[in-house]
Structure formats: structure tokens, C-alpha cells
Write a structure and sequence with these properties.
- This protein has 171 residues and is mainly alpha-helical.
- The chain has nine helices and no strands.
- It is globular.
Length: 171
Amino acid sequence: RLKNTYSNDTYVEMNLLEQVAEKNAGKAAQYGLRSLEEGVQYQHINLLKKIYDKDADKGIEFASAVYSRTRKDDSPNLWALNSLLEYGGEVMEQTKTNGKRPVYSQTDMRVMAESLGQELLKMDGEALASMTAYIPAVEKYAPNRGAQVRAKMARAGARTGGRPRSSGSSA
């Protein structure tokens, strides 16, 4: 019950922060930094988008804090890393026409992709097979690491008869 209450409180807090971001990106970023203490949640990605849309400089600062927080954990949040890469790529494309600074530099994107790729390489075949959606981002920004991940996945597939092993019954 306590965990559920915490989740509800976090959800309400993040929704309020998104509303604040529409009016005052600086305040939203300031309060958003405090909310990162518990780790990166999907709401932080949404908040980042709102802050960046309102004030690119504040968005870039918050983006840096979000990425830094993903790196603090012994086991990084792979979904968060992938989401940051996807959003960073979208913004990078948009900056070609809108004149804003990108939320992450090309170097930042490569470092994030390397980090994500390294985490994927630590996984065994079954776990890795469940992460295939993350590989394109790694390949785009860290092609060599992406190739290593694909090769490991192919080797794991060969050991399991060409398909990932599952814990369910076989046909």
C-alpha cells in the first residue's frame, strides 16, 4: 500500500511539474531535479520534452541531469537510456530547421549509445532477445557497439535453435 501511495504521489507530482513547465520552464526544471533523486521515470522524459519546448537552455540543463541520474545506478535504466537517445535524435533532426540547440550533442548521443550497448552486452541470450527494440539506437550512434550487440544476439540465437529460448512449453 505504501508503494502504491508513493506511485500515486509521484504521478500527481509529475503531472503538476508538467503544468508548471508550460508556464515556467526554469521552476519546472528546478523541481524536476529534486524528483530525480528516486530515479528516472517515464514522466521525467515527458517533463524534459515540455521544459525543452518552452526553454531550450533549461531543457538542455535538465536533460543533462536526467542522463547523469541514469548513470548513477549500478544497473542503469535501459528504457530511460533508449528514450533519451530517441528523443535526442528527434530533437537533433528538428534543430536542422528550427535553429534551437540540440538537447544532447552528437558526442553525448554516442556516449549514451555506448553505455546502452555495454549494458546489452552484459545480458545473456534470453534477456538480450527481449531488448531488440533498443539495438537500433545503439547502431545509429555507436555503430561498432551495435554490431557487437547484433553479433552476440545472432550467436545466442544459434545456440537456441535460431530463436530465443522461452520458459513456456515447446510446440
